[in-house]
Every structure is written in C-alpha cells, then in structure tokens.
Amino acid sequence: MELDTIAAISTPMGEGAIAIVRLSGDEAFDIGAKVFRGMKGTTMKEFATHTIHYGHIIDPDTDKVVEEVMVSVMRGPKTFTREDIIEINCHGGLVSVNKVLQLVLKHGARLAEPGEFTKRAFLNGRIDLSQAEAVMDLIRAKTDRAMNVALNQMEGRLSNLIRKLRQEILETLAHVEVNIDYPEYDDVEEMTHTVLLEKSRHVRDEIDKLIRTSEQGKILREGLSTVIIGRPNVGKSSLLNSLVHENKAIVTDIPGTTRDVIEEYVNVRGVPLRLVDTAGIRETEDIVERIGVERSRQVLKEADLILLVLNYADELTHEDEQLFEAVKGMDVIVIVNKTDLPKEIDLDRVRGLAKEHPLVTTALLEEEGIDELEEAISSLFFAGSIEAGDITYVSNSRHIALLNQASQAINEAINSVEMGTPIDIAQIDLTRTWELLGEIIGDSVNESLIDQLFSQFCLGK
Ligand code: GDP
Ligand code: ZN
C-alpha cells in the first residue's frame, strides 16, 4: 500500500501543557530532517529508532528558530501506525504548535484527516476494528474508570472473546457440512442436531452475557445519572456547585444543559457522575410546578442515583415525605443540609424514612460534609454490581447493536433446529451470526463503514 506522509496536532490526554505534532509515513524522517536541528548539528536521519532528542525547529527558508522542542523518532514497523513516526513535542502553546504544523505541511506532509493515524494502524494490520474504536473511546473517556474499560478493550479482550465465538460457530458449521455431505449415516444427523443446539446455545449465552455488560459500560462512559431533589431552598444548587468545585467538572461533548434542568459532569473519586439539578435555572421554584409532574417523574425514573436534600433548619414536611415515596426502590443518598443553623428537623424520623439508605449531614455554605458525601457515593458505587478489573465491558453502541443482532440471528438458528426445519436454514442464521460478530472486529466490513468510523476520531489520532 502506498500511503503519503500525514501530520496533525496530536494533543495528549489531560491538560498537559505540551502539544505534539505527529508525522507518520515514509517521508516523516526526511521532512523532520528539513525542519529539525539537534544539538551539535546532529540530523534526524542519524537518530536510532525509539529515541528522544532535544533541539529546535527551524524554518529552512529563513533559518529562524520557530520553537524549542523534544523530538521522538520511531521507525516502522514497531510503531502505532507501523509507519515511520516522528513526534515533535512543543511547549510554547497553541500558536507555536500551529507554526510547527504549518512548517511540516509546507515541507511535504499532508494534514491528517480525523482518525487517520488510527485508520492507518488498522489498514496496516496493527490493530483490529474494535481496538481502533477503543482508541476513539479512550480519546473521549471522561474518567479514569472509563479509560480502563477502553484500555481493556484495546488490549483486545473483546476481540479475543469474539474470535473464540466465531471459531465455535465455524466448527459448528463444519459439523453441519458433514451431515450434508454424508446424509447416508443416520446417527450423523442426530449428532449434528445435538451439537448444533448445544454449541448455538452456548454462543448465544456468551453473546447475551456481553450484552448485559453494556449497561455498565454505558454508565462508565456517560456517567451515573444523578438527580438532586429536594424542596425549594434546601440547598440543591449549592450541592451541585460544591460537587462541581471540589471535583473538576468534566468537559464533555455530550449535549449537557437541557432547557428544564442543569447538568454537570464530575468525577467523584473515580465515579463518573452526570449531575442533574432539577431546580436549576430559576431558584425557589418547585420542580413539579415548573417542569410538570410527568417530566419530573421521567427524570427520576431515568436516574441511577438520587441525592435527596433536606433542610436541617426546618421541620420535615409532607412534601419531604412524598419525595421519599417517589424514590422508593432506587439508590438514594439522603443529605441533611444547613447543620450550621439551629436544628428544627427530627433526625430520628429522617432515619426512619431513609431506612437503609446512607445519610449524610452537610453545611454546604461552610463546605462541611462534602468529604463524607463523596465517600458515600463512592462506596455505594463500588459496592454495587460494577467492579473494576477483569470483566470485559461492551460500551460501544455500534458493538451493542451488532451483539443484539447476532443474538437474534443465533436465536433464530436455535428455534429452527428445535422446530425440525431443514438444517440449511440454521446454517444461514449461523453464518449471519458469524458475520455480525465479525463486523465488531472488522473482519467483514466494507470500506465505507470503515471510512465512516474513522471520520469520528479526533484530529491527530
Ligand atoms: P435550592 O433551591 O434547593 O437549589 O437551594 P440553594 O442551593 O439555592 O440554596 C438556598 C439558600 O440556602 C441559598 O441562599 C444558600 O446560600 C443557602 N444555603 C445553602 N446551603 C446552606 C448551608 O449549609 N447553610 C446555610 N446557612 N445556608 C445554606
Ligand atoms: Zn437551586
């Protein structure tokens, strides 16, 4: 494959001050040699692979220094794209990194399209499609934990599992072939039915298991939907603000603020939360009054976690009790706020209403109790069904859709065997299952799907 040399600003994750211009392709070293001057006049072509060098980027036309840099040189094929790569680490901010980029573009590189580096890794056989998508998730990952899911996937766990399942289907199909080729042996046919059912059911169970993990995967990616409820003036907005200020809000490209409610993304001790302040926007207005009973029920129903706020300096009201009623059976943390003021609330009654739910007291105005609240959030989350570690989560919506289709296809195969329909019907469904699973790892995709996928990547990846 003849590929030109591409370049882009490849900003590292996090908020590092360093920006990287990355080049990949046959001419990466030639272009680098033109613009980079190392110490004691060393040139890029002499550098050993996988080494880092200090020096300057020079505009060859004017001989002027553009930027002070560290350059990493990596010769293919032991690189991310399997091509020659150089990475120019600039630390002068966006303006100078842009200058460096313009310079390498002027001297022979082409500006990379979004996702083109990863696409090359895929095209050059370095990674499979599900790994490529994991890179994309990694770029978008909002918290450490979401990053771990993406990393696991990148290590090919999902791919390995899918491959095993496909292999099983292939072997089963091979059995069916035996039946078709040697119909004269009766027992072969019976055996085929048994094997077919047994294997298909096993594959289906494995697929369904993967589908079930997707809900958790989604939570890790999008955050636990957390709704703050409480009567007007108890401190809901103050709570939202405290959590946002204590925990750096996560910048997100998911459309956040809706018209009815305010949403913020925060990372509380590794737990990604999508906080929803139901009061939002205009203060002291009743959520039920403002957005309607139906809408507020909807917001509650979709929540993974409820933060129910009460006022320490006020007696419990009927409305408070109704709120407890409304969140029955959900994950709730009860927060009694304003403990800096004289107590009016009956804490024993609150404990009775809260039952097994954690109860935290806060004085948000004085930033008291926030640690305890964060502790409650993280222990609730980590004591629950979600465990970090060696579970393979499916969190990519395309994968989930394909797994659902595969599950359906293999169920049809199972049904037709059970109903005694001719075996070639099951064969078709099994083949379809095999193809659908293949699409997850990119073994049976067409070019346009690949293009579409990679165009979603951020630039420079
Ligand atoms: P919301 O209507 O539930 O969103 O309540 P707000 O967060 O807007 O708070 C209502 C009022 O209570 C504001 O004036 C806050 O400054 C105040 N407030 C919030 N938390 C505390 C607290 O812990 N102690 C005291 N004394 N006032 C608080
Ligand atoms: Zn408010």
From TrEMBL:
Source organism per UniProt = Rossellomorea aquimaris
EC assignment: the record states: 3.6.-.-
Cofactor(s) it depends on: K(+)
Q: What is this protein called?
A: tRNA modification GTPase MnmE
The record's section on Pfam families has: MMR_HSR1 (PF01926), MnmE_helical (PF12631), TrmE_N (PF10396)
The positions annotated for binding K(+) are: 233, 252, 254, 257
**Domain of life, per the record?**
Bacteria
The cofactor note from the UniProt entry for this protein is: Binds 1 potassium ion per subunit.
Q: Name where it's found.
A: Cytoplasm
